[in-house]
Design brief:
This is YgiT-type zinc finger domain-containing protein. This protein is of the alpha+beta class. It is built from five helices and five strands; from the N terminus they run H-E-H-H-E-H-E-E-E-H. Bound molecules: zinc ion.
Length: about 150
């Protein structure tokens, strides 16, 4: 069973992972990783789910130790095989985008959901913040096309 102490320990020692889905939700809500961590450290468990053999689906934030103990099950489909890969990751901070290639993750062999170590996401968030503050110059800058669906031809 997941306990508050266990969540706090995972959150304060970077022994956790974010699914790509959870990370997108976090960025859509304009929350930093530090704000999520603070909520986990000071929050309470409001509801326990039955033990389905999968981590809590609602949070999609899975402590690394839990994943290892569960033979790295996918939180979304329950598939047992996650494979270490690298992928392209797009970080959004307000209207600023940062594209990072070759980001390490675990990917579900069945549904494709990806999981990122909190430490990896923290490094990306810090790098993007430095670029936005003009403390660091990115390797390349590319124009990004923006379109409204109503303006699409077709
Ligand atoms: Zn899956």
């Amino acid at each position: 069973m997941i306990t508050e102490d266990w969540i706090k320990q995972c959150a304060t020692t970077d022994h956790d992972r974010y699914s790509r889905h959870a990370d997108r939700e976090r960025q859509n809500d304009d929350l930093t990783l530090a704000e999520i961590e603070q909520a986990l450290v000071s929050g309470r468990i409001l509801e326990q789910y039955p033990d389905t053999g999968r981590p809590c689906r609602r949070s999609s934030r899975i402590p690394t130790s839990e994943l290892r103990a569960m033979s790295q099950h996918c939180a979304f489909c329950g598939h047992k095989h996650l494979t270490a890969k690298t992928t392209r990751y797009i970080h959004q901070q307000a209207d600023e985008l940062l594209i990072v290639d070759d980001v390490p993750c675990l990917a579900c062999d069945y549904c494709g959901e990806q999981y990122f170590d909190a430490a990896v996401l923290k490094a990306i968030e810090a790098e993007h913040s430095a670029i936005v503050r003009h403390c660091k110059t990115p390797q390349a800058v590319k124009p990004v096309a923006v379109e409204s669906f109503n303006a699409l031809s077709g």
